[in-house]
Amino acid sequence: MSHEFVTAHIDHFRAQLFDLLRIPSVSTSPQHTADVRRAAEWLAADLRRIGMTRVEIMPTEGHPIIYAEWLGAGTHAKTVLIYGHYDVQPAAKADGWHTEPFEPIEKDGAIYARGSSDDKGQVFAHIKAAEALLANGGQSPVNLKFLIEGEEEVGSTHLGDFITANREMLRADVCVISDSGMPTADQPAIVYGLRGIVGMQVDVYGPAQDLHSGTYGGAVHNPAQALAEIIAKLHNPDGSVAVPGFYDDVLPLSETERAELRQSALDEAIWLAQVGAPQPWGEAQYAIHERTGARPTLEINGMAGGFIETGMKGVLPARAFAKISCRLVADQQPDRILQHVRDHILNLAPPTVRVEVTPLSSGSGPAFVDIQTPAMQASIEAYAQGWGKRPVFMREGGSIPVVTDFQQELGLPVILMGFGLNNDGAHGPNEHFVTEMFRKGIHTALYFYEAVGKGRN
Amino acid sequence: MSHEFVTAHIDHFRAQLFDLLRIPSVSTSPQHTADVRRAAEWLAADLRRIGMTRVEIMPTEGHPIIYAEWLGAGTHAKTVLIYGHYDVQPAAKADGWHTEPFEPIEKDGAIYARGSSDDKGQVFAHIKAAEALLANGGQSPVNLKFLIEGEEEVGSTHLGDFITANREMLRADVCVISDSGMPTADQPAIVYGLRGIVGMQVDVYGPAQDLHSGTYGGAVHNPAQALAEIIAKLHNPDGSVAVPGFYDDVLPLSETERAELRQSALDEAIWLAQVGAPQPWGEAQYAIHERTGARPTLEINGMAGGFIETGMKGVLPARAFAKISCRLVADQQPDRILQHVRDHILNLAPPTVRVEVTPLSSGSGPAFVDIQTPAMQASIEAYAQGWGKRPVFMREGGSIPVVTDFQQELGLPVILMGFGLNNDGAHGPNEHFVTEMFRKGIHTALYFYEAVGKGRN
Asked: Is B196-250+296-359 a domain of CATH 2.130.10.10?
């Protein structure tokens, strides 16, 4: 019945989305603060109208967070926490848009507007699924909680603290995030693993000040050279990280998982053409998508020392430094990896220089949901019904700290159930959301709530 | 008789030097162009007055060069080429001078003025020695050629071309330069070796543009890491340079030479306190003064890649580079060393990145005059008579391109016969020239001409 409701109201839902897309809720720009607020109020009003029983626009030190809940399924039913964001990236026609970014139009089967895919359209699909369930005095098979923030495009600055401060309110059985894309329109994909990150700076100090390389060169250990000598010992010749203990907590890839990952793997030649490097590099016993998704790394994000302007200067620098970050996979912990790398670097430091290692952030752990867990199985069923095709499973190399927050602070499995396409133009000009994917997204969200509600979670 | 002439006229010589020091011939400053010219004219007039037979102010594209000669000793006699400069560093009382820098005064036995030591006072000592020889229809035992430039403080921009264009005119048997200091007033010192230099840039290219270190990290060879891995292979664990062929042309240090060098060696603890590094570094079988003076080096003058601002950025950089220079000792040649280092780096380059090595200059060869050569022996005799003490011999780690020019373009042994003190304040405030060293310098120059003239050259 809910699905028929969606079919009957899809044109109205799209018209409503157009209204939301007209609000330029650009979180990066102070001149749009009122617009950001207006978008929050618009969504809160819609959430109230569809029958959510508690709807609040909760203040933060930045843009507000919308919280909405419907707990009518009862204390014994499962609860789904839906995360999304109502803020958008900046956009101006002059950036290469063919139409005004905040005047949505439908063209060639897609809705063109800033935020159509990232993330208004995707989070709105969930709201419309909830509407379909609650319409005409209906019931949802699961309790529903919406957490929709207004600062995702500025780094979710206040979300972590908000989650920590509202653990009880946000308690749920599963968190679903629809804020990503799939490789092709007919092949749904679920990201079940994200890498964490931890960063540090390595400073190498030699002489008290920059020296004349003629007068002193040959008798002073050059800090740039000493740093290079340390960096060169951080990897083994096979591309693996040479830090003792680095791989201790890495979950091994099972053959089942490797087979699953192969289904969505990009062809190596296509990947290499995108990258533009002479050859791939790294651990030969792992495929490229495994190296970038399922294996941890140690990367030199930056390094510098001495004279780096145009020309030449006969200087023996007093200092050199490198910024290093490690991408982490389950079950590595940022603080443990930081300690291992730091210990190794300090062990490598020769007595001819002074070496310091300073953390650059507290880091963020990897996110990982086992494909065999009920929540994942529910998402497979939802896609199979909503898309008519079983989803493929992927691991992504980047980090989404908010996923880690949900996982670590709330202890929730997080399902990254994207309804967009990778080439939707999020953050670029002519962002769009395929209308058919908006429709399928609503149905898929419904199927997901139903699958979770059947106690499969 | 010439020495008595010096003794009789020393007060007058000093008064003349004061006149020269009053001219603010600051070559770096366009507003002093006329003053620079005036200093050249003043010196040319004095050179004519003392009896030099050909005196010319020869134009360059910058400040003019003074050339003067007296060839009365005849074609079978030796010829001494005296190099000096009449331009000075900028100076203003506000920089910390106790007196006006261009109003010379004598105080506590020293002449205070900009240029008193560097180099007007020292080159003028040679002119006064020539005057003493030629006075009253006298003869010099050697032919004399003066080459006094006005651009030493701006890098001798036009001197190299001038020398090349005037090889015949400048032909001589020995070149003497008095433009340096000795460690203490009673211990004359001769620098008989200077290191040459050759520089290059190493660029390491990886992906076509900076990549997200999460999305791509683990499958792309990071150019900063690849550069560090190359740099780490440029030295052996014992501190020597690991480039094949690097030491092929290095003249070995004889035990005699090592004993000679030890006489002026700085105590290691004092040296280390000056440097401020935790420990000395380098080839253990050589003393510190040998490592910096008599051994070649390969130095990282600068290196950079990726994100080097404050904070952290998850970037896998597209490029990293290093600026490398080698200090050379006799008989290493800049072009050969460049080739050796370049070949080695390109051999080390892995196929996962693209490496380019670009020369940063044509380099300059090392300068070296064997202590046993007659010109050196003449200078020993001159100091022994003029200073009452045998000079010590030193090798300096820096490079003075003009010395290389004289040596390579004119094929001359170059004697660096400083009359100043290391702490004369050249380039700083309160530059001064100890009056007694001005007087001894004139006598020592005379003894030198006499020693060369006795056919010891």
From this structure: no
Output the pLDDT for position A184. 87
| A455 pLDDT above the threshold of 80 | no
Which residues of B fall within a CB distance of 8 Å from A229? 228, 231-232
- Cβ of A197 and B217 within 8 Å? no
Average pLDDT, rounded, for chain B:
95
Q: Quick one: pLDDT at residue A363?
A: 87
Q: How many Cα atoms are found within 13 Å in the side-chain-facing hemisphere of B98?
A: 9
What is the SS3 assignment for B340? helix
Contact B219, A292 (CB under 8 A): yes
Q: Which among B232, B277, B303 has CB closest to A221?
A: B277
> Who's near B227: CB < 8 A, 6+ residues apart?
A228, B202, B204, B303, B305, B320, B321, B322
Q: Is B249 left (phi over 0), alpha (psi -120 to 50) or beta?
A: alpha
Q: How far apart are CA B387 and CA B379, in angstroms?
A: 11
Nearest CB to B398; choose among A214, A280, A297 = A214
Assigned fold of A196-253+292-359: Alpha-Beta Plaits (3.30.70)
CA atoms within 13 A on the CB side of A68: 27
B308: three-class secondary structure by DSSP: coil
Cβ–Cβ of B327/A297 closer than 8 Å? no
Place of tokens 């070995």: B252
Cβ atoms of A129 and A445 closer than 8 Å: yes
What number is the average pLDDT over the span A32-59?
A: 98
Residues of chain B with CATH 3.40.630.10: 2-194+366-456
| Of residues B73, B51, B49, B52, the one with CA closest to residue B139 | B73
Query: What residue in B sits closest to A327 (Cα-Cα)?
Result: B214
Mutation target to probe the B interface, by most B beta carbons within 10 A, among A180, A247, A281, A283 is A281
Q: Given an 8 Å threshold on Cβ–Cβ distance, is B302 in contact with A306?
A: yes
For residue A236, count CB atoms less than 10 angstroms from its CB and return exposed for 0-12, middle for 13-18, buried for 19 or more: exposed
Residue A55 structure tokens: 């709807």
How many angstroms separate the CA of residue B5 from the nearest CA in chain A? Answer: 40
Instruction: Tell which of B202, B212, B222, B298 to mutate to test the A interface (max A CBs under 10 Å).
Output: B222
Verify whether the Cβ–Cβ distance A304 to B300 is below 8 Å: no
Which top CATH class is A2-194+366-456?
alpha beta
DSSP string of B70-89, one letter each residue: E-TT-TTS-EEEEEEE--B-
Partner residue facing A317 (CB), from B195, B231, B302:
B302
Å between B396 CA and nearest CA of chain A: 7
| Structure ipTM over 0.85, yes or no | yes
For CATH 3.30.70.360, the residue range(s) in chain B are 196-250+296-359
Q: What are phi and psi of B17, to 5 degrees?
A: -60, -40
Q: Which of B219, B279, B311 sits opposite A281 (nearest CB)?
A: B219
Whole-number percent of chain B with pLDDT over 70:
99
